[in-house]
Design a protein that fits this description.
The complex is a heterotrimer of chains A (389), B (345) and C (290). Chain A is 42% helix and 23% strand. Chain A is of the alpha/beta class and 389 residues long. Chain A starts with a helix and ends in a 10-residue tail after the last strand. Chain B has 15 helices and four strands. In chain B, helix 2 runs parallel beside helix 6, helix 2 packs antiparallel against helix 9 and helix 3 runs parallel beside helix 5. With 290 residues, chain C is mainly alpha-helical. Chain C is 72% helix and 2% strand. In chain C, strands 1-2 form a two-stranded antiparallel sheet. The radius of gyration of chain C is 19 Å and the shape is globular. Classes of the chains: A alpha/beta (389), B mainly alpha (345), C mainly alpha (290). Chains in contact: A-B, A-C, B-C.
């Protein structure tokens, strides 16, 4: 018993000591990848990292002359640990840039820490409006999207198609609500009306009751936002309930991104709106997809693109200061002014930190999200409460 | 010869008693030494370890508050995190949108809110016993969790920001500004010392003795004329109110709150902290909180356990928990007590 | 809400409730007979779902064969688990059981991550059960869901027959009331417990296998069903199978209709139900054990 205790005490002491030994932060730029490496979002985290690394590797492992090193941390999509995890990366591991994450709750805590410690943060996915709303800052920029954007794009298309009555269904959390808000804003502007908003608690997947409700209300179109496992189940359930051919289902692109293999025939023909489509006819996209497949032997998805573009934003900042990360203000201004040559087309950054980008309409064909048309060009997301307008 | 052996045995037991008394005297000073060390600590720490120590202090208060319930009164609650979460959420929700809230308002609200929910939960669940009590406290905690997670009361599953940390101001002059790390730390240390001292005095009081009696044999206490339900309810409310105080600190420290603060995982973890340190001991609760949190840190550090183990730290954690609960049921304090008890005494 | 939708919602509620019953019955059996709180029970459900995925996708077993093989594997798992781990929990206090089985959840979850990865998987329903039948107007109900509900009913009946009409069931009921007496009568209580535990695991895994085609197979699926099954067990009364049945159906209805009528608060509804039941009857709904 004594021995065990001694070992435990030494180990605990070592943990604290190990935590206090500062790591060297010299010329190389340390990128802190705080992503989900376990749990439902693990695949997304993996794709984001692959995209980021691809860009850096394409430039010989260096951006603006600085070698890029990585520190990885699994955020477990747990908002309760997010502050501590972000602090760990910044204060213990002395990263120069924070890159993350997928879950909005975690990203919100990260943005808070980034702003308080004055660390540059590039968000390669989480689209919560609060991050570029009241909490906006020059330290935080997104290479992905604002939750509102894909919904707005779909709403424009839905109104153009002449549908008048819509119902929405999503999880009752920020990403779902903000996506629905985008759809509603565009749909009502185009003359439509959202008759009912259905929600269920995140991450509940018992959809039967709500599907029955949809069948009872008989809208012209149903707009949905789900991601990951929930998206798989919902699309399958929608078809199984016999609604697929009777009431058109449209959604934010995440409903069909990374989920088509599991959804199978149930997803065929689905219309979605996203800032990316697999077969987008943009030269950069073809190069990107070829390089990605050659490097990783899997097809990239929108998350990989977002990771790739996060690296591009960092590169833009570093180039403007010739690799000297101490000139943070200049770097951040350059990132805000950057025009990114992305596989999704070129995009700029709004003053509040969101990409100003096209929303594309896609249709599912044979297990791919095929590009149909541009739903909205250069869409600017609202940034309520941001002082950086 | 028998007499010599008897003499030796007496000498041995006298030495043992002396050792125990000396150790006890040394042990009595330990909390005071620790408190002084805590106050002096920030000057020697790096920014990261400062955050770590702050987290440890908050969890120590949290564990101490559960110790009153589980260790002193014998009420095994599986929903303790809900009260931490309620304290944290009230702190954020009661902060005005335009500027910082006053500590003099937010702290009592946070503690009071937790106490109020504890009163309701306690009144209803203390009618049950044993495993039912365990499940009912879990159920009420889940209710609170879902209120914050699903409804619009608090920003949903992503949580809400605390845009301005609380201050204590008299007119224009700020007496205490929790945005300053040093002052927040000072408040946290003060609250830890207060909680420890308060609970130590409570345990020594008549009320505390009654609670201990209820833990050991409630029927006997009732036969002796004690209204055990009232005592249990009081203990429950006090313990949960202290957890609310820890929640206030948590919100002030992180600047953001989310429903995971009320999750049953955290309730299970704080139970583990108390067991880890040793049930029935205030020192044990603090040791348990510190030890458990540091152990988790250790298991997740690739530098110390290797990348494979760090990536799958839940495996090592799970095995550790099982082995520890199975073989060291009295916790770290139990090990100490056994060491102090010399053979032959 | 018109009559047709109401009936369909009732069907939804019953189907969900019956699936919950499958999971909860195992939990209440283990709890009631051996006195062990097993937080890892949800992990068995997850094991069942992942087994279904592996057996049907990797080994391409036809559906019914997969069920049989899955049941056998789950039974073996339960047998071994009881032997090496759970048998040591019987004489420990509830707190220790809670914490040790919590540790078990972490281990199971990590093993799942190591063996099956973190991706979400779909399992296809067998061809002879795919498709739906029309329920008037716009709605149709999938055949598979009907099958799932029917399967749960069959299992429930089997369980009833087993407990009330066989010698084994008699021993189980006796063991629940008076362990020492049963041992004194020469019945091998250890083997009995092992069999009951394996049975509990089989039920949970079977529920997982049956729901795999309906819900996806994903990490965390065990935890979500765990808490709800505990609520069911407590409402129904610990150790009572009939109580668990009534409670599961109640929970199914509260959840289903709560989602339709009280959008944001459906999550709270189940716990409110539990609180109300416990205020009225602190030991759960069932008066007698069975």
């Amino acid at each position: 018993m004594k021995g065990i205790f001694r070992v435990a005490a030494i180990a605990a002491g070592a943990a604290v000591l190990g935590a206090t030994v500062p790591s060297q932060a010299a010329e190389p730029v340390k990128v802190g990848l705080m992503l989900p490496y376990s749990g439902t979002y693990a695949k997304l985290g993996d794709m984001i990292e692959k995209g980021f690394r691809l860009y850096v590797d394409e430039h010989g492992g260096k951006l603006a002359g600085d070698e890029i090193t990585y520190v990885k941390l699994d955020d477990e999509s747990d908002p309760a640990k997010a502050t501590d995890n972000a602090n760990k990366l910044i204060k213990r591991d002395h990263v120069n840039v924070l890159v993350g994450t997928v879950h909005s709750g975690v990203a919100m805590a990260m943005a808070r820490v980034a702003e308080e410690t004055g660390t540059l943060m590039i968000d390669p996915n989480a689209g919560a409006m609060a991050i570029t709303g009241p909490m906006c800052s020059l330290d935080v920029v997104r290479s992905s999207f604002n939750n509102w954007q894909p919904g707005y794009g779909m709403g424009v298309v839905a109104a153009e198609k002449g549908w008048k009555k819509a119902m929405t269904i999503t999880w009752n959390y920020a990403a779902g609500k903000e996506s629905v808000q985008g759809f509603t804003d565009a749909f009502t502007k185009g003359g439509g009306k959202v008759i009912k908003n259905l929600t269920l608690p995140f991450p509940n997947v018992q959809f039967e009751a709500l599907l029955t409700e949809i069948a009872a209300q008989k809208p012209d179109v149903v707009y949905t936002f789900f991601a990951g496992g929930g998206a798989v189940k919902f699309v399958k359930d929608y078809a199984a309930a016999g609604l697929k051919d009777k009431i058109p289902l449209v959604g934010a692109g995440f409903v069909t991104d990374g989920t088509l293999e599991a959804q199978g025939a149930a997803a065929e023909g689905l219309l979605t709106s996203l800032h990316y489509a697999d077969d987008l006819d943009v030269p950069k996209n073809h190069e990107f997809r070829k390089a990605f497949v050659a490097a990783y032997k899997v097809e990239p998805d929108v998350y990989a693109v977002q990771g790739y573009d996060a690296a591009q934003l960092l590169a833009a900042g570093l180039k403007a200061v010739n690799g000297d990360m101490q000139q943070k203000a200049t770097m951040e201004k350059a990132i805000r002014a950057a025009i990114v040559d992305s596989p999704r087309g070129t995009f700029r950054i709004s003053p509040s930190g969101d990409p100003i980008q096209n929303m594309y309409l896609r249709r599912v064909r044979n297990g791919h999200n095929d590009y149909v048309s541009v739903a909205v060009k250069d869409l600017v997301a609202p940034s309520v409460g941001c002082k950086l307008k | 010869m028998p007499s010599m052996r008897a003499g030796e045995e007496t000498l041995a037991s006298v030495r043992a008693v002396a050792r125990r008394t000396a150790a006890a005297r040394f042990g009595a000073w330990l909390p005071l030494v620790a408190a002084v060390a805590l106050i002096a600590l920030p000057s020697v720490l790096t920014p990261y370890t400062r955050d770590l120590v702050m987290t440890l202090i908050i969890y120590a208060i949290f564990a101490l508050s559960l110790e009153l319930l589980v260790g002193t009164t014998g009420l095994v609650s599986f929903g303790h995190a809900a009260f931490l979460g309620i304290g944290a959420y009230i702190t954020v929700l009661a902060t005005p949108a335009s500027g910082p809230g006053s500590i003099a308002v937010l702290l009592p609200l946070a503690v009071g809110g937790a106490a109020l929910y504890a009163l309701i939960v306690g009144a209803l669940s203390l009618r049950t016993r044993g495993v039912y009590f365990l499940m009912v406290t879990l159920a009420f905690a889940q209710m609170a969790f879902f209120v914050f997670h699903d409804t619009d009361v608090g920003g949903g599953s992503d949580g809400i920001y605390l845009y301005f940390r609380p201050v204590m101001a008299v007119g224009e002059h700020k007496l205490l500004d929790l945005d300053q790390w040093g002052q927040l730390y000072g408040l946290a240390v003060g609250m830890l010392i207060f909680t420890y001292a308060f609970l130590a005095l409570l345990r020594r009081s008549r009320f505390g003795h009654a609670l201990a009696g209820i833990r050991i044999n409630e029927q006997r206490m009732r036969a002796a004329g004690f209204r055990t339900y009232g005592y249990k309810l009081a203990a429950f409310v006090i313990g949960c109110a202290l957890a609310g105080m820890a929640g206030f600190l948590m919100a002030a420290k992180n600047g953001v709150v989310n429903p995971e603060l009320l999750s049953w995982h955290l309730s299970a973890e704080v139970l583990l902290m108390v067991i880890f340190g040793g049930l029935g001991s205030l020192r044990g609760a603090v040791i348990g909180a510190v030890g458990f949190t540091l152990l988790k840190e250790l298991y997740q550090s690739p530098g110390l356990v290797g990348t494979l183990a760090a990536d799958h730290w839940q495996l090592t954690m799970g095995i550790t928990i099982i082995l520890f609960v199975a073989f060291v049921p009295r916790g770290v304090i139990g090990i100490f007590r056994r060491l102090r008890t010399a053979p032959g005494s | 809400m018109d009559l047709a939708s109401f009936l369909v919602q009732c069907l939804n509620a019953v189907q969900y409730g019956l699936l919950l019953f499958l999971v909860a019955s195992g939990l209440t059996l283990i709890f009631g007979i051996m006195g062990v709180i097993n937080l890892a029970h949800g992990s068995f459900y997850m094991v069942g779902a992942y087994l279904a995925f592996w057996l049907s996708t990797a080994l391409h077993l036809p559906f019914l064969v997969m069920l049989v093989v899955g049941i056998a594997l789950a039974g073996a798992l339960g047998f071994v688990l009881e032997w090496v781990f759970f048998s040591y929990l019987y004489h420990r206090g509830h707190l220790q059981q809670v914490l040790m089985t919590y540790g078990l959840i972490l281990i199971f979850d990590e093993l799942r991550s190591l063996l099956a990865g973190n991706d979400v998987h779909g399992v296809a329903a067998p061809a002879w059960l795919s498709g739906s039948f029309a329920l008037g107007g716009l709605m149709s109900y999938p055949w598979y869901r009907l099958f799932a509900a029917a399967a749960c009913v069959v299992v429930a009946l089997l369980l009833y027959v087993l407990i009330h009409r066989t010698r084994l069931g008699m021993m189980v009921r006796a063991g629940a009331s008076n362990r020492d007496m049963v041992r004194g009568l020469g019945i091998n209580i250890r083997m009995l417990y092992r069999a009951v535990f394996a049975g509990g695991v089989v039920f949970a895994a079977l529920a997982g296998m049956i729901s795999a085609p309906m819900s996806s197979v994903y990490p965390g699926m065990g935890l979500s069903i765990l808490i709800i099954s505990f609520v069911v067990v407590v409402i129904g009364g610990i150790g009572s199978i009939s109580g668990a049945l009534v409670a599961s159906l109640l929970v199914g209805f509260v959840d289903t209709f709560g989602k339709v009528f009280f959008q944001g608060y459906s999550g709270v509804g189940i716990y409110l139900l539990m609180a109300i039941v416990l205020i009225w009857r602190p030991e759960g709904l069932a008066r007698r054990s069975w």
